Amino acid sequence: MTLSTTPDPAIFPYFQPIISVASGIIEGYEALARCYDAQGRVVSAGGVFFDPQISDEQKIEWDRRLRYQALQKFSQLKTNCYLTLNISAAWLKYVEDMSQLPTLKMLHEMNIDKRRIVIEITEEKGDLDHLAELVKVYRQHGLKVAIDDFGAGYSQLERVIAIQPDIIKLDMQLFKQANKGGVARDVVQLVTRLAKRSGSHVVCEGVETTAEFFFALQAGIPLMQGFLFSPAMAEFSPPTTHQRHIDSLRNKFLHKTLPNERKNNSKLATIKQLVKQLQQALQTDFNLNQLAALPFEISGILRFYICNNQGQQLSASFVFSQKKWFEDARQMGFNWSWRPYFYQILALDSPLACHEPIASESYRDFNTDKLCKTFSIRIDEMRILLVDFVVPATNL
């Protein structure tokens, strides 16, 4: 690739801290491109790299110079944090020799510990097989790899499978939408579970408000960056710069969350008690009208049904609505043995060993579109009771 001689627009690196919410310490920095506007103010240089009038060759030349400057400055940092460098997946077609990667040459020249460098893959374009090959080379040299803007496009799932990133950075727009609730919130919850199962760390960028910080904590996100803590700056900060702020935010989160958790625990205890009352009633002939007198409506219980040990639904689904029970026979004969909360009951050493209901994970109920869980508990050696209920608000 022949580099262009187009005048350099004076692009230089700024560094935004990435903070651990567990310790409050700066774990790393993201190197971001900056330049001066017509008034001499420092602004993002992102527009330069997305300008269609500028060739990829020129953008790559400027990006390598930016990377070199960032690594030069990082090499002087005495603390043991990491640095993430953004590399566009669309530029990978210009990489001809995997043994001569520019970033690796820079790291060797500056004697930087490669384990402290994270290559952050941006954009969705680029050949996936070529990307996986490049990532393999980086990993062989000790570097880590991150996927940027996860959630901005469906192809990101293919990328996670192909390169198995060390870090997943949530798309900022997805995160902000998730903070308002709805399906986006469910997606963020799923991403954090995916990361835990795959051994990746999730970083939430663009955290600007206390409410967003609280949501990220509730979603189990361990690393954050954003204006709530610090914008990108020309200089690195001491590791403990934001520790007191994070301590304060965590304490506020705990103070805000505990009353709701206690309330939800009380609701769950009520539901469990109702499940046990159903269990006892079903051991003999039961009267639906008498059962309807129990506080099912205010507890959030939607329906109950009975299965045999093979998972086959023996009864109709008894659905609660407007203080009455109704029979819905549409799922009689269905088999639920494949659901974890069912076979976990079967796996107990003794058929009657379970005295407490076993809860499923949360799911979206097809009939009501509400977020629900299912409790399962034995009635006797031959029958199992399953009860669907609406999940309390913060117990998702």
How much beta, percentage-wise? 15-25%
Low-confidence stretches: 1-5
CATH architecture of the largest domain: Alpha-Beta Barrel
* CATH topology name of the largest domain: TIM Barrel
CATH class of the largest domain: Alpha Beta
CATH superfamily of the largest domain: EAL domain
Tell me the series of helices and strands, N- to C-terminal. Answer: EEEHHEHEHEHEHHEHEHHHEEEHEEEE
Describe this structure in words.
- The protein has 396 residues and is an alpha/beta fold.
- The protein has two domains: 12-241, Alpha-Beta Barrel (TIM Barrel), CATH 3.20.20.450; 268-390, Beta-Lactamase (2-Layer Sandwich), CATH 3.30.450.20.
- It has twelve helices and 16 strands.
- It has an eight-stranded mixed β-barrel, surrounded by five helices.
- α4 (128-140) packs parallel to α5 (155-163).
- It is elongated, with a radius of gyration of 27 Å.
Q: What secondary-structure arrangement, pairings included, does this model have?
A:
Layout: E1 12-20, E2 26-36, E3 42-44, H1 46-49, H2 56-74, E4 82-88, H3 102-110, E5 117-122, H4 128-140, E6 144-150, H5 155-163, E7 167-170, H6 172-178, H7 183-198, E8 201-205, H8 210-218, E9 223-225, H9 243-281, H10 288-291, H11 296-299, E10 301-308, E11 317-321, E12 324-328, H12 340-346, E13 358-359, E14 363-364, E15 371-378, E16 383-390
Keywords, please?
single chain, 2 domains, Beta-Lactamase, TIM Barrel, 7-stranded antiparallel sheet, alpha/beta, 12 helices, 16 strands, 396 residues, elongated
Summarize the structure.
With 396 residues, this protein is α/β, with parallel strands linked by helices. Helices cover 35% and strands 23% of the residues. The protein contains 12 helices and 16 strands.
